[in-house]
Amino acid sequence: MKLFLIAALLVLALTHGSFAEHAGAQLTQYLENIKAKINRDLHDFMDQTSLKDHAETFLENRQAAFEPVAVKIQSQLEDMKAAAGDMEDQIKPLADNVKQKVNPLIANLQEKMETIMQMLAEHAKTAHK
User: Fold this and answer.
1) What are phi and psi of 48, to 5 degrees?
2) Which residue from 75, 77, 95 is spatially nearest to 87, judged by alpha carbons?
3) CB 45 within 8 A of CB 51
4) Please, what sign has the CA dihedral across residues 16, 19, 21, 27?
5) Residues 6 or more apart from 77 whose CB is under 8 A from it?
6) pLDDT tens, 31-70?
7) Residue 96: inside a domain
8) 76, part of any domain
9) pTM of the prediction?
10) Half-sphere exposure (Cβ direction) of 63: Cα atoms closer than 13 Å
11) Cβ contacts of 36-40, under 8 Å, gap ≥ 24
């Protein structure tokens, strides 16, 4: 009886193995078929002239829509350049005037600082003696 059970189990295992091998081959073939179909469909889709024409038409329409905006922006940039030039013309004399007034003050402050530094140096020399 034990021998019969072992033989039956062995036959079942061999049968199961052959089914598993056959199922694996079928699954591999099925996946290869799907891959080939996807590649064919994608190639057919990309080769359609209507898709290419649609994309070109879309790009042309977007370009036509944005062209007035670009012209408007360019005009505004030119206005801003002119305004910046005007502001520079107005600010330059003011900056020169401020520079003329500040330079003597800076020179005077520098002289005072040098005098203070000399006094501190002399004081330090006398304090160490």
Assistant:
1) -65, 125
2) 95
3) yes
4) negative
5) none
6) 788 888 888 887 877 776 677 787 888 889 888 888 888 8
7) no
8) no
9) 0.36
10) 6
11) none
